[in-house]
Amino acid sequence: MRVVLGVGGGIAAYKAALLLRLFTEAGHDVTAVPTEAALRFVGKATWEALSGKAVRTEVFEAVESVNHVRLGHEADLIVVAPATADLLARAAGGHADDLLTNTLLMARCPVVMAPAMHTEMWRHPATQANVSLLRERGVHVLDPAEGRLTGKDSGPGRLPDPEDIFAAALSFAGGQNRDAEHDAGTAPEGGPLAGRRVVVSAGGTREAIDPVRFLGNRSSGKQGVAVARAALEAGAHVTLVAAHLEVSPPEGVEVVKVESALELREEMLERTASADAIVMAAAVADFRPARRSDAKIKKRDDAPDLPIELVRNPDVLAELVRGRDAAGTQQVVVGFAAETGDEGGDVLAYGRAKLERKGCDLLVVNEVGTDRVFGLDENSVTILSKDGAAPEHVAGSKDEVARAVVVRLARALEAR
């Protein structure tokens, strides 16, 4: 596949070098087209070494090949990362003041733009209007990730991980006739989950104490998002019920946003009624405050410490299994268990007990801690099965773990 990788002039340009490597290592023919501003962050030598091609930025370079027309005509896919606020504005306005914007105007292939900028720039009405206009024209503008920005601030505006951009771009690379399917949350035909409906939950729930504060957990949502992406790539129609995420949902899945455990329960019960498979990867809070203050609770020197009374949240996974069994359907239910060992037993012992207690078909068990799993790109899990199959240990990137889970899920569906 012939890929044009456009690079905007932002600090995140260095991540585009990793994206270029992903495309070339997958066997694609990549031409890098940075803007002049991008070359202030990453020089020509890097792009030429990684792509094996000369790098040009201006219309009046390589005129003999009519480069500003040829690149857009010949490309099977154009990916722009990072797409700065300025570059989004120029693309939306139809500007043609450098080689990249000319290439975008000539494109008749799928175009994917991955924004990266400061939070205020991303939220500015002008940027949002430009994004809406580009999307109306069929450009696939990804949502930025949330997290630490260039300075000390955090918020939406980070460039999504190169692996996420790579996967999203490939999901659109099959041709423009598939766009409507992706918008509806449908994957291309084929694959072990073709024709199946899969509902995945991901991220950490937040239980409100008052309008400002909440009880939460360390989940980034990366593993659940990876499972949703793997299921989509396997051919499934995927619905992602998303609590708090630190990564962008994959393009091509239907996303339902929730905040609390009760909201997640309500959406899961509704969305899974017609599903073939359920994957509960969300980190659902076990407890919530018994009472939520409608006003911010003030800290006062003349008042005693404030106790917070907790009540149990519903066991969503167990409830989904009971509903499946009562309806007599052939759904496959996959649970995730974040465990720590203690004097009462090790991680696998607690995992086996949870598998029996919950009644799900598969349970993905991982040992967690402040320096393990949460927020990281790597994971190490053991997949336990209700049917007594030998435990399967999988270690690697969260995408690799997700693909292993989807393989087991597909096998279980086929056996039914």
From TrEMBL:
Query: Under what name is this protein listed?
Result: Coenzyme A biosynthesis bifunctional protein CoaBC
- List, for all copies, the residue spans of the domain called DNA/pantothenate metabolism flavoprotein C-terminal: 193-410
Q: Which cofactor does it need?
A: FMN; Mg(2+)
Task: Write out the entry's keywords from A to Z.
Answer: Decarboxylase, Flavoprotein, FMN, Ligase, Lyase, Magnesium, Metal-binding, Multifunctional enzyme
Determine if Ligase is one of this entry's keywords.
yes
Recorded GO CC terms: phosphopantothenoylcysteine decarboxylase complex
Q: Report which reactions are catalysed by this protein.
A: (R)-4'-phosphopantothenate + L-cysteine + CTP = N-[(R)-4-phosphopantothenoyl]-L-cysteine + CMP + diphosphate + H(+); N-[(R)-4-phosphopantothenoyl]-L-cysteine + H(+) = (R)-4'-phosphopantetheine + CO2
**Enzyme Commission code:** 4.1.1.36, 6.3.2.5
Q: Does the keyword Protease apply?
A: no
User: Which pathway does it operate in?
Assistant: Cofactor biosynthesis; coenzyme A biosynthesis; CoA from (R)-pantothenate: step 2/5; Cofactor biosynthesis; coenzyme A biosynthesis; CoA from (R)-pantothenate: step 3/5
Cite the Pfam families for this sequence. DFP, Flavoprotein
One GO biological process term is: coenzyme A biosynthetic process
UniProt-annotated binding residues for CTP: D286, K296, P314, D315, V316, L317, F336, K354, K358
Q: Where is this region: Phosphopantothenoylcysteine decarboxylase?
A: 1-197
Q: Where are the residues of the annotated region Phosphopantothenate--cysteine ligase?
A: 198-416
